Amino acid sequence: MSVAERHEARLIWASNRALFALLRLGRVIGPARRIPKLGWVVTDPLLARRLLGDAEHLSMLGEGGVGHLWAQVLGDWVNDTFDGPGHARLRGQARDLFTDTSAKRQVRRVFADAGPALTERLNRGETVDVAEVARTWVGRMVADLLGLEVDESRDDQPYREIFAFGERLVVLARGTMSSTTLAPEVVTEAKRIVEQLTAGVPHAYATAGEERLLGRCRESGIGLREARGLATVLLVAGTETAASAMARGVALLHDTGQQYALLANPRLMPDTVREVLRVTTPAPLIGRHVTARIETSGRTLQKGDRVLMLTYTANNGVGRFDIQRPLAPQIRQLWFGAGHHLCLGAPLARAEITYLLESLLATGHGWRVVRRRAARGVVIPSYAELSIVREG
User: What confidence tens digit (pLDDT) does each residue in 334-362 have?
Assistant: First the structure.
Protein backbone atom coordinates (compact mmCIF):
# COMPACT_ATOMS: atom_id res chain seq x y z
CA MET A 1 0.00 0.00 0.00
CA SER A 2 1.41 3.39 -1.00
CA VAL A 3 1.78 6.38 1.34
CA ALA A 4 -1.21 8.08 -0.28
CA GLU A 5 -3.36 4.95 0.07
CA ARG A 6 -2.42 4.59 3.74
CA HIS A 7 -3.45 8.16 4.49
CA GLU A 8 -6.76 7.71 2.66
CA ALA A 9 -7.44 4.46 4.53
CA ARG A 10 -6.73 6.12 7.89
CA LEU A 11 -9.02 8.98 6.97
CA ILE A 12 -11.95 6.66 6.23
CA TRP A 13 -11.24 4.57 9.36
CA ALA A 14 -11.30 7.68 11.54
CA SER A 15 -14.48 9.04 9.99
CA ASN A 16 -16.66 5.94 10.20
CA ARG A 17 -15.44 2.46 11.04
CA ALA A 18 -18.62 0.85 9.69
CA LEU A 19 -18.04 2.56 6.34
CA PHE A 20 -14.39 1.48 6.38
CA ALA A 21 -15.41 -2.13 6.99
CA LEU A 22 -18.03 -2.04 4.23
CA LEU A 23 -15.62 -0.59 1.68
CA ARG A 24 -13.02 -3.23 2.58
CA LEU A 25 -15.67 -5.92 2.22
CA GLY A 26 -16.62 -4.45 -1.15
CA ARG A 27 -13.18 -5.34 -2.49
CA VAL A 28 -13.80 -9.09 -2.13
CA ILE A 29 -17.55 -9.73 -2.55
CA GLY A 30 -17.66 -9.50 -6.33
CA PRO A 31 -19.80 -7.25 -8.55
CA ALA A 32 -23.02 -7.60 -6.53
CA ARG A 33 -24.08 -9.54 -3.46
CA ARG A 34 -26.97 -9.50 -1.04
CA ILE A 35 -25.71 -8.71 2.47
CA PRO A 36 -27.91 -9.25 5.54
CA LYS A 37 -29.29 -5.97 7.01
CA LEU A 38 -27.82 -3.95 4.14
CA GLY A 39 -29.52 -5.31 1.03
CA TRP A 40 -27.82 -5.58 -2.35
CA VAL A 41 -24.27 -4.23 -2.34
CA VAL A 42 -22.97 -3.33 -5.81
CA THR A 43 -19.29 -2.73 -6.60
CA ASP A 44 -19.26 -3.14 -10.38
CA PRO A 45 -19.21 0.33 -12.02
CA LEU A 46 -21.19 -0.67 -15.11
CA LEU A 47 -23.91 -2.31 -13.03
CA ALA A 48 -23.98 0.63 -10.62
CA ARG A 49 -24.41 3.10 -13.47
CA ARG A 50 -27.13 0.94 -15.03
CA LEU A 51 -29.09 0.78 -11.78
CA LEU A 52 -28.68 4.48 -11.01
CA GLY A 53 -30.09 5.27 -14.44
CA ASP A 54 -33.07 2.90 -14.08
CA ALA A 55 -35.90 5.16 -12.91
CA GLU A 56 -38.45 2.49 -13.86
CA HIS A 57 -37.34 0.00 -11.22
CA LEU A 58 -35.37 2.02 -8.65
CA SER A 59 -36.00 5.23 -6.74
CA MET A 60 -34.22 7.45 -4.25
CA LEU A 61 -37.51 7.46 -2.32
CA GLY A 62 -38.42 4.63 0.01
CA GLU A 63 -36.21 2.75 2.47
CA GLY A 64 -32.59 2.92 1.35
CA GLY A 65 -32.75 6.14 -0.67
CA VAL A 66 -31.59 9.57 0.43
CA GLY A 67 -34.97 11.00 -0.60
CA HIS A 68 -36.50 8.88 2.16
CA LEU A 69 -34.30 10.70 4.68
CA TRP A 70 -35.24 14.12 3.34
CA ALA A 71 -38.99 13.39 3.28
CA GLN A 72 -38.91 12.70 7.02
CA VAL A 73 -37.25 16.06 7.68
CA LEU A 74 -38.78 18.32 5.03
CA GLY A 75 -42.18 16.75 4.34
CA ASP A 76 -43.95 14.61 1.76
CA TRP A 77 -43.64 17.25 -0.98
CA VAL A 78 -40.10 15.89 -1.40
CA ASN A 79 -41.60 12.81 -3.08
CA ASP A 80 -42.51 14.85 -6.16
CA THR A 81 -39.65 17.34 -6.21
CA PHE A 82 -36.90 14.78 -5.66
CA ASP A 83 -38.02 11.92 -7.83
CA GLY A 84 -41.29 12.82 -9.53
CA PRO A 85 -42.28 15.14 -12.39
CA GLY A 86 -41.25 18.13 -10.27
CA HIS A 87 -37.68 16.87 -10.22
CA ALA A 88 -37.19 17.22 -13.98
CA ARG A 89 -38.82 20.65 -13.92
CA LEU A 90 -36.59 21.85 -11.10
CA ARG A 91 -33.41 20.58 -12.76
CA GLY A 92 -34.40 22.24 -16.02
CA GLN A 93 -35.02 25.57 -14.33
CA ALA A 94 -31.70 25.57 -12.45
CA ARG A 95 -29.47 23.83 -15.02
CA ASP A 96 -27.97 26.95 -16.59
CA LEU A 97 -26.74 28.02 -13.15
CA PHE A 98 -24.53 24.92 -13.04
CA THR A 99 -22.80 24.72 -16.41
CA ASP A 100 -19.00 24.50 -16.59
CA THR A 101 -18.84 28.05 -17.95
CA SER A 102 -21.13 29.59 -15.34
CA ALA A 103 -19.47 27.61 -12.53
CA LYS A 104 -15.99 28.83 -13.48
CA ARG A 105 -17.24 32.40 -13.74
CA GLN A 106 -18.96 32.20 -10.38
CA VAL A 107 -15.98 30.65 -8.60
CA ARG A 108 -13.57 33.28 -9.90
CA ARG A 109 -15.93 36.04 -8.82
CA VAL A 110 -16.67 34.66 -5.34
CA PHE A 111 -13.03 33.75 -4.60
CA ALA A 112 -11.51 36.75 -6.38
CA ASP A 113 -9.93 37.99 -3.15
CA ALA A 114 -9.58 34.70 -1.28
CA GLY A 115 -7.48 32.97 -3.95
CA PRO A 116 -4.72 35.61 -4.21
CA ALA A 117 -4.77 35.98 -0.41
CA LEU A 118 -4.07 32.25 -0.06
CA THR A 119 -1.19 32.48 -2.53
CA GLU A 120 0.27 35.45 -0.69
CA ARG A 121 0.07 33.71 2.69
CA LEU A 122 2.09 30.80 1.34
CA ASN A 123 4.60 33.14 -0.30
CA ARG A 124 5.12 34.88 3.05
CA GLY A 125 6.10 31.54 4.54
CA GLU A 126 2.92 31.05 6.56
CA THR A 127 1.53 27.66 7.47
CA VAL A 128 -1.93 27.32 5.94
CA ASP A 129 -4.63 24.86 7.03
CA VAL A 130 -6.09 23.88 3.66
CA ALA A 131 -8.94 21.95 5.28
CA GLU A 132 -10.10 25.11 7.05
CA VAL A 133 -9.65 27.14 3.86
CA ALA A 134 -11.83 24.64 1.99
CA ARG A 135 -14.59 24.79 4.61
CA THR A 136 -14.60 28.59 4.56
CA TRP A 137 -14.54 28.81 0.77
CA VAL A 138 -17.41 26.37 0.41
CA GLY A 139 -19.46 28.27 2.97
CA ARG A 140 -18.78 31.47 1.02
CA MET A 141 -19.89 29.82 -2.21
CA VAL A 142 -23.14 28.52 -0.71
CA ALA A 143 -23.96 31.96 0.73
CA ASP A 144 -23.39 33.58 -2.66
CA LEU A 145 -25.28 30.96 -4.62
CA LEU A 146 -28.33 31.29 -2.41
CA GLY A 147 -28.12 35.06 -2.08
CA LEU A 148 -27.85 34.89 1.72
CA GLU A 149 -26.88 38.07 3.55
CA VAL A 150 -23.90 37.82 5.90
CA ASP A 151 -22.17 40.22 8.26
CA GLU A 152 -18.97 41.07 6.36
CA SER A 153 -17.52 42.77 9.45
CA ARG A 154 -16.98 39.29 10.94
CA ASP A 155 -14.56 38.32 8.17
CA ASP A 156 -14.83 34.61 7.32
CA GLN A 157 -16.71 33.56 10.45
CA PRO A 158 -20.23 33.71 8.90
CA TYR A 159 -19.12 31.40 6.09
CA ARG A 160 -17.59 28.95 8.53
CA GLU A 161 -20.89 28.95 10.43
CA ILE A 162 -22.84 28.20 7.24
CA PHE A 163 -20.58 25.22 6.65
CA ALA A 164 -20.95 24.09 10.27
CA PHE A 165 -24.76 24.09 9.98
CA GLY A 166 -24.56 21.75 7.01
CA GLU A 167 -22.00 19.65 8.87
CA ARG A 168 -24.30 19.22 11.87
CA LEU A 169 -27.18 18.16 9.65
CA VAL A 170 -25.09 15.59 7.79
CA VAL A 171 -23.87 14.04 11.05
CA LEU A 172 -27.46 13.13 11.90
CA ALA A 173 -27.36 10.70 8.96
CA ARG A 174 -24.75 8.55 10.71
CA GLY A 175 -26.08 5.08 11.31
CA THR A 176 -28.42 5.11 8.30
CA MET A 177 -26.33 2.65 6.31
CA SER A 178 -28.61 -0.23 7.30
CA SER A 179 -31.82 1.81 7.50
CA THR A 180 -32.84 5.27 6.34
CA THR A 181 -35.69 5.44 8.87
CA LEU A 182 -34.76 8.12 11.38
CA ALA A 183 -35.57 7.99 15.08
CA PRO A 184 -38.17 10.60 16.17
CA GLU A 185 -35.61 12.52 18.23
CA VAL A 186 -33.27 12.69 15.23
CA VAL A 187 -36.07 14.05 13.02
CA THR A 188 -36.87 16.69 15.66
CA GLU A 189 -33.21 17.76 15.88
CA ALA A 190 -32.86 17.80 12.09
CA LYS A 191 -35.92 20.02 11.71
CA ARG A 192 -34.55 22.41 14.32
CA ILE A 193 -31.25 22.68 12.47
CA VAL A 194 -33.03 23.21 9.15
CA GLU A 195 -35.01 26.08 10.70
CA GLN A 196 -31.80 27.76 11.82
CA LEU A 197 -30.00 26.90 8.61
CA THR A 198 -32.59 28.46 6.34
CA ALA A 199 -33.73 31.37 8.52
CA GLY A 200 -32.49 33.87 5.93
CA VAL A 201 -33.92 32.04 2.92
CA PRO A 202 -37.34 33.79 2.80
CA HIS A 203 -35.69 37.21 2.52
CA ALA A 204 -33.19 35.96 -0.05
CA TYR A 205 -36.01 34.28 -1.98
CA ALA A 206 -37.89 37.58 -2.15
CA THR A 207 -34.92 39.77 -3.07
CA ALA A 208 -32.30 37.69 -4.91
CA GLY A 209 -31.60 38.35 -8.58
CA GLU A 210 -32.18 35.72 -11.24
CA GLU A 211 -28.46 34.87 -11.25
CA ARG A 212 -28.98 33.37 -7.79
CA LEU A 213 -30.62 30.00 -7.28
CA LEU A 214 -33.36 31.33 -5.01
CA GLY A 215 -34.08 34.18 -7.40
CA ARG A 216 -34.38 31.68 -10.23
CA CYS A 217 -36.74 29.58 -8.13
CA ARG A 218 -38.95 32.61 -7.45
CA GLU A 219 -39.07 33.75 -11.08
CA SER A 220 -39.77 30.19 -12.26
CA GLY A 221 -42.77 29.82 -9.98
CA ILE A 222 -41.17 27.42 -7.51
CA GLY A 223 -42.77 28.07 -4.14
CA LEU A 224 -40.92 29.21 -1.03
CA ARG A 225 -41.40 25.85 0.70
CA GLU A 226 -39.76 23.95 -2.15
CA ALA A 227 -37.06 26.59 -2.56
CA ARG A 228 -36.28 26.39 1.14
CA GLY A 229 -35.99 22.63 0.88
CA LEU A 230 -33.72 22.94 -2.14
CA ALA A 231 -31.54 25.39 -0.23
CA THR A 232 -31.27 22.87 2.60
CA VAL A 233 -30.24 20.08 0.26
CA LEU A 234 -27.68 22.32 -1.46
CA LEU A 235 -26.21 23.38 1.87
CA VAL A 236 -25.78 19.73 2.83
CA ALA A 237 -24.83 18.11 -0.48
CA GLY A 238 -22.54 20.95 -1.53
CA THR A 239 -20.59 21.55 1.66
CA GLU A 240 -18.86 18.52 3.18
CA THR A 241 -18.42 16.71 -0.14
CA ALA A 242 -16.73 19.65 -1.87
CA ALA A 243 -14.55 20.57 1.11
CA SER A 244 -13.51 16.93 1.54
CA ALA A 245 -12.41 16.60 -2.08
CA MET A 246 -10.53 19.90 -2.01
CA ALA A 247 -8.36 19.06 1.02
CA ARG A 248 -7.88 15.40 0.12
CA GLY A 249 -6.85 16.39 -3.39
CA VAL A 250 -4.10 18.63 -2.00
CA ALA A 251 -2.95 15.74 0.22
CA LEU A 252 -2.95 13.23 -2.66
CA LEU A 253 -0.86 15.49 -4.88
CA HIS A 254 1.63 15.90 -2.04
CA ASP A 255 1.73 12.25 -0.98
CA THR A 256 2.28 10.99 -4.53
CA GLY A 257 4.66 13.79 -5.54
CA GLN A 258 2.48 14.51 -8.56
CA GLN A 259 2.12 18.18 -7.64
CA TYR A 260 5.40 18.71 -9.50
CA ALA A 261 4.03 17.19 -12.72
CA LEU A 262 1.02 19.49 -12.47
CA LEU A 263 3.26 22.47 -11.71
CA ALA A 264 5.33 21.70 -14.80
CA ASN A 265 2.29 21.13 -17.02
CA PRO A 266 -0.83 23.10 -15.97
CA ARG A 267 -2.73 21.56 -18.90
CA LEU A 268 -3.04 18.47 -16.71
CA MET A 269 -5.44 20.36 -14.41
CA PRO A 270 -8.73 18.92 -15.80
CA ASP A 271 -7.34 15.38 -15.59
CA THR A 272 -6.03 16.10 -12.08
CA VAL A 273 -9.41 17.29 -10.84
CA ARG A 274 -11.11 14.27 -12.39
CA GLU A 275 -8.58 11.97 -10.73
CA VAL A 276 -9.01 13.69 -7.35
CA LEU A 277 -12.75 13.12 -7.54
CA ARG A 278 -12.32 9.51 -8.69
CA VAL A 279 -9.96 8.51 -5.89
CA THR A 280 -11.62 10.46 -3.07
CA THR A 281 -15.25 9.86 -4.16
CA PRO A 282 -16.59 12.11 -1.36
CA ALA A 283 -20.01 10.38 -1.55
CA PRO A 284 -18.61 6.84 -1.12
CA LEU A 285 -21.94 5.07 -1.43
CA ILE A 286 -25.33 5.79 -3.01
CA GLY A 287 -28.54 4.10 -1.92
CA ARG A 288 -31.66 3.24 -3.90
CA HIS A 289 -35.01 1.59 -3.19
CA VAL A 290 -36.30 -1.08 -5.58
CA THR A 291 -39.84 -0.21 -6.69
CA ALA A 292 -40.40 -3.11 -9.10
CA ARG A 293 -38.85 -6.55 -9.60
CA ILE A 294 -35.88 -6.48 -11.96
CA GLU A 295 -33.39 -9.01 -13.28
CA THR A 296 -29.96 -7.63 -14.09
CA SER A 297 -26.51 -9.19 -14.46
CA GLY A 298 -27.85 -12.56 -13.32
CA ARG A 299 -29.37 -11.15 -10.13
CA THR A 300 -33.03 -10.74 -9.25
CA LEU A 301 -33.88 -7.66 -7.22
CA GLN A 302 -37.30 -7.78 -5.60
CA LYS A 303 -39.67 -4.90 -4.93
CA GLY A 304 -38.79 -3.39 -1.56
CA ASP A 305 -35.12 -4.36 -1.67
CA ARG A 306 -32.42 -1.87 -0.77
CA VAL A 307 -29.41 -1.34 -3.05
CA LEU A 308 -26.12 0.23 -1.99
CA MET A 309 -23.80 1.28 -4.79
CA LEU A 310 -20.25 1.36 -3.37
CA THR A 311 -19.05 4.12 -5.65
CA TYR A 312 -15.77 4.48 -3.76
CA THR A 313 -14.92 0.83 -4.35
CA ALA A 314 -16.01 0.95 -7.98
CA ASN A 315 -14.01 4.08 -8.74
CA ASN A 316 -10.84 2.99 -6.96
CA GLY A 317 -10.90 -0.37 -8.72
CA VAL A 318 -9.45 1.45 -11.72
CA GLY A 319 -6.10 1.91 -9.97
CA ARG A 320 -3.96 4.26 -7.91
CA PHE A 321 -4.03 8.04 -8.12
CA ASP A 322 -2.44 9.12 -11.41
CA ILE A 323 -3.12 12.55 -12.90
CA GLN A 324 -1.99 11.34 -16.32
CA ARG A 325 -4.49 8.45 -16.35
CA PRO A 326 -6.80 8.42 -19.39
CA LEU A 327 -10.53 8.64 -18.75
CA ALA A 328 -11.93 5.26 -17.66
CA PRO A 329 -15.14 4.92 -19.71
CA GLN A 330 -16.68 2.30 -17.42
CA ILE A 331 -16.98 4.76 -14.55
CA ARG A 332 -17.33 8.12 -16.39
CA GLN A 333 -18.39 10.47 -13.55
CA LEU A 334 -19.65 7.82 -11.13
CA TRP A 335 -18.37 9.93 -8.21
CA PHE A 336 -21.27 12.29 -9.05
CA GLY A 337 -23.81 9.50 -9.46
CA ALA A 338 -25.49 8.66 -12.76
CA GLY A 339 -28.79 8.91 -14.58
CA HIS A 340 -31.33 11.66 -13.99
CA HIS A 341 -29.94 12.21 -10.49
CA LEU A 342 -26.40 12.97 -11.66
CA CYS A 343 -25.23 15.69 -9.28
CA LEU A 344 -26.44 19.08 -10.51
CA GLY A 345 -23.53 20.80 -8.75
CA ALA A 346 -20.81 18.72 -10.45
CA PRO A 347 -19.43 21.64 -12.52
CA LEU A 348 -19.27 23.81 -9.39
CA ALA A 349 -17.33 21.16 -7.46
CA ARG A 350 -14.83 20.84 -10.33
CA ALA A 351 -14.44 24.60 -10.51
CA GLU A 352 -13.86 24.94 -6.76
CA ILE A 353 -11.17 22.25 -6.70
CA THR A 354 -9.53 23.78 -9.77
CA TYR A 355 -9.38 27.26 -8.29
CA LEU A 356 -7.91 26.02 -5.01
CA LEU A 357 -5.15 24.11 -6.81
CA GLU A 358 -4.47 27.07 -9.11
CA SER A 359 -4.09 29.32 -6.06
CA LEU A 360 -1.53 26.91 -4.59
CA LEU A 361 0.39 26.57 -7.86
CA ALA A 362 0.43 30.35 -8.30
CA THR A 363 3.33 30.44 -5.84
CA GLY A 364 5.47 28.79 -8.51
CA HIS A 365 6.46 26.11 -6.00
CA GLY A 366 5.15 22.85 -4.61
CA TRP A 367 3.90 22.43 -1.07
CA ARG A 368 4.71 20.25 1.92
CA VAL A 369 2.22 18.85 4.43
CA VAL A 370 3.47 19.62 7.95
CA ARG A 371 0.44 18.48 9.98
CA ARG A 372 -2.63 16.44 9.27
CA ARG A 373 -5.49 15.26 11.42
CA ALA A 374 -8.48 13.22 10.33
CA ALA A 375 -12.00 14.32 11.19
CA ARG A 376 -13.63 11.80 13.52
CA GLY A 377 -17.24 10.74 13.75
CA VAL A 378 -18.27 12.33 10.45
CA VAL A 379 -20.24 10.96 7.48
CA ILE A 380 -17.96 12.23 4.71
CA PRO A 381 -14.28 11.22 5.22
CA SER A 382 -12.35 14.45 5.55
CA TYR A 383 -9.45 16.23 7.20
CA ALA A 384 -10.06 18.22 10.35
CA GLU A 385 -6.67 19.79 9.64
CA LEU A 386 -4.29 19.68 6.67
CA SER A 387 -1.58 22.27 7.25
CA ILE A 388 0.88 22.99 4.45
CA VAL A 389 3.83 25.28 3.73
CA ARG A 390 5.32 26.36 0.46
CA GLU A 391 8.45 24.55 -0.64
CA GLY A 392 11.44 26.56 -1.81
Answer: 988 888 878 878 899 999 999 999 999 99
Q: What is the CATH number of the domain that holds 300?
A: 1.10.630.10
Measuring CA to CA, how many Å separate 115 from each of 235, 251, 271, 283, 354?
A: 22, 18, 21, 26, 11
At 286, the amino acid letter reads I
Residue 362 · residue 112 · CB < 8 Å: no
Find out whether 289 and 308 touch, Cβ atoms under 8 Å.
no
Cβ-contact 229, 81 below 8 angstroms: yes
> Whole-model pTM?
0.93
> Among candidates 13, 57, 15, which has minimal Cα distance to 307?
57
The amino acid at residue 346 is A
Beta-strand ranges (E) seen in 91-165 are 128-129
**Neighbouring-strand partners of residue 39:** 35
Range of the domain at 24: 3-390
Q: Domains in the chain: how many in total?
A: 1
pLDDT single digits (tens) 279-328 = 999 889 999 999 999 998 888 999 999 999 999 999 999 999 999 999 88
